[in-house]
Fold each of these.
Amino acid sequence: MDKLTLTQPDDWHLHVRNGEILKTVIAHTARQFARAIIMPNLKPAVTTVDEALTYRSEICQALPSGSNFNPLMTLYLTPDTSVAEVKKAALAEHIHAFKLYPAGATTNSESGVNDLKTIYPILEAMEQEDIPLLIHGEVTDDACDIFDREKVFIESSLASIVKTFPDLRVVVEHVTTQEAVDFVFSASNKVAATITPQHLMFNRNALLAGGIRPHYYCLPIIKREHHRLALVKAATSGNPKFFLGTDSAPHLTGSKENSCGCAGCYSAYGALELYAEVFENEDALDKLEGFASFYGPDFYQLPRNSNTVTLQKQAWTVPASYPVDQGSITPLMANEILSWKILD
Ligand code: DOR
Ligand code: ZN
């Protein structure tokens, strides 16, 4: 097979930032995806419907002319989020979810929630309003080994959220472990997960063996090979609980190649091509359309896209970097060869 036509996919977990960098990264996403769930971890965080709509306008203005790309906005849950804001969000056409960051878990998560029990009344309102909760599933306890933080979060917090709010739609974002995959498989169909290209493609050797490679550093951190294999199995299983979410998270090259480098892999430039690589290696290209184009909109109760994109088997080299206003962004797999290319 050297050509593959799919219903146009969407990205169900994406960071596009704001300001100058936005123009470059949103064009990369809009080249392949019709819609994306936009993460609210700006500085300051996007916490209200009005702020999210302002941010949405900024994104739309940054799009290449003629683009029909639709940004699906989310609100950042803080200890101050009110039931009234949940009700307002549920009625707002362009707001699709709330994002929960445990305070301190990752980039710009300081405004997140320390004690999850304190927001249970908000989660109850979200359950009633049927607006999804997107979770960064890691504990923030310094004493917890960084490679165990997702697993411990599942045991200590996620299980209880899902049990207490059985009708709340929950997306466990960017799952990285066998434990997370098992949890989502055995939960009700209100619980789903996104999977990133980097967690499907690499294990922790890519980050540390033979030198520290900051462009593979993201949170949750990439794990051991047996976890990667569990993720690949889930993504290519055809189970609708698992769908595409890149977590593409651009940082300036200088902020990553640094004595305290930022977390985040930049994959938006070629996300679908990266996933195609994974699915082809598993002999599962027939499962790519469900993962990339069907299960996400089904879970979010949105229509599937009606247009298509075509991938062609054609080797190309990922650029060393993409220039932006204040420097450059180094992509995931810079200078490496990918074997599928989207036809423009
Ligand atoms: O690696 C990450 N980068 N993980 C996150 O959760 C946030 C993201 C970012 O915003 O840079
Ligand atoms: Zn993210």
Note: The chain is about 35% helix and 20% strand.
Amino acid sequence: MGFKILRKEQLASNIHFIEVDAPRIAKAAKPGQFVVLRINENGERIPLTIADKNIKNGTIEIIFQEAGASTTILSKLKAGDSILNILGPLGEPSHIENIGSVVVIGGGVGIAEIFPAIKEYKAKGNKVTAIIGARNKQLLLTEEKIKNMADELLIATDDGSYGRKGFVTDILKEMIEDKKEINLVYAVGPVPMMEAVSNVTKAAKIKTMVSLNTLMLDATGMCGVCRITVGGQIKFACVDGPEFDAHLVDFKELKTRLSTYRDKEKEAIDHICSLDKIKE
Ligand code: NAD
């Protein structure tokens, strides 16, 4: 029953990789899309980006951070265990065409989500520069894979332990100052990063797309939990997105909505950890 986990790896202290048997999703999934999974009967619905897929093997890959109660429970599953439901692929696929020179930016866990877009931008004949950034070297996920696919890979770490010291935006600013040709920027990562990227490219008038990680519940456009404002209009990230024109996104509202249940989430994680302690 359910969707079997075929491979599981811990990539960093609280970041995990799973490869799951899901042939129909693997066949249909396009870059930019996500799945919603429910671990068990009592599980909440968690939206997670499809990090890669293998149509031949009928598998999808997911890389996730232990962020709340459900991802903490998911992190405890092993290869051979099953996830009760996986719904997908969901969301609008990325609109990828030949536009010239594209800069694809991944920050933190967002790095793990940019590979399908890089692959497709390359397939459409674009020159792709990838910029990835994380707090330190250990958190630079899927570096080799990105290096092998992109034309150029530029790296920043906050602590300077690898690549240049600083943020992904420092590298982007330099590229713009050096008058490098950039026709499009595509960014995935924490909201402050996507907002910072947007501010840089807005000033330089470079079209920029971001993948928004809003809260989500049903992920079919009915519940409204993922509501955001884009260009003054109400949108739902699950069905209208998750990708939007960064220069039109109301980031202030997004940040406020993302923090709504932070206290409840902390309570839920503390509860799970206390149950683990009882078992020990
Ligand atoms: P983090 O805070 O460690 O930041 C990662 C990198 O992003 C930094 O090293 C830096 O290069 C850049 N960055 C961060 N803040 C910046 C700023 N203010 N200005 C310029 N650059 C900045 O990231 P993390 O802890 O790995 O991120 C986790 C967050 O990413 C979670 O909130 C998660 O929900 C989100 N996430 C988003 C997506 C998505 O689809 N957008 C996907 C996966 C994870």
Note: The radius of gyration is 18 Å.
